[in-house]
Write a structure and sequence with these properties.
The protein is an alpha/beta fold. It is built from eight helices and six strands; from the N terminus they run E-H-E-E-E-H-E-H-H-E-H-H-H-H.
């Protein structure tokens, strides 16, 4: 627990990044870690970039992760992984959702969604885990649970599966969605 771990969660507004970060933070605090979290909403409600920085360890003094300092980046949308890759350590890991959310300019036909995004990420980072979280969440009955599937993948990448994640889910999710989210986090950890 002496080493500080830096986790950057990135995506687009409406993907549930803040909820995933809160569950992560709750679980880590309950497990005895000192945790600091910082979130940037940007134009979240309009599909803009959203980031959350979570740092944990024995003693953490600041919630901010600088460029080249993230141990893990979890990208809830493919383009966001490329946008934030400069924050990854040279030996860092990326957990990426194979999912596209077209920007307003793509929807308007002014631009095309870039091709080969995952291949580009793999050329820049050796340790890449690709998850089709939307497919997995759909199998569970609700595509909106893809954020928690991604959280499960992040938990696996960090090697912190032994934390009581069911308790963290119960503390942060409405009761009617608890079972779905517990299944989603377990699914992500198995991928």
């Amino acid at each position: 627990m002496k080493d500080i771990k830096n986790v950057l969660l990135v995506g687009v507004g409406g993907q549930g990044i803040i909820l995933a970060s809160k569950i992560l933070t709750t679980g880590l605090i309950d497990a005895g870690y000192d945790v600091k979290m910082s979130e940037v909403h940007g134009m979240a409600q309009r599909g803009g970039s959203v980031t959350t920085q979570v740092r944990y360890g024995q003693k953490v003094h600041s919630p901010i992760i600088g460029k080249g300092q993230a141990d893990v980046i979890v990208a809830f949308e493919k383009i966001e992984a490329l946008r934030w890759i400069d924050y990854l350590k040279p030996d860092g890991k990326i957990v990426i959702n194979d999912y596209e959310i077209p920007s307003a300019t793509v929807i308007a036909g002014k631009e095309r969604y870039p091709e080969g995004v995952i291949e580009k990420i793999k050329s820049l980072c050796e340790d890449v885990t690709v998850i089709k979280a939307a497919d997995e969440a759909t199998k569970l009955g609700n595509i909106k649970a893809q954020n928690i599937v991604m959280l499960g993948g992040l938990i696996k990448a960090l090697g912190i599966e032994n934390v009581d994640w069911q308790k963290a889910v119960r503390e942060n999710v409405k009761e009617k969605f608890v079972d779905l989210n517990i299944k989603a986090i377990e699914t992500g950890m198995q991928i």
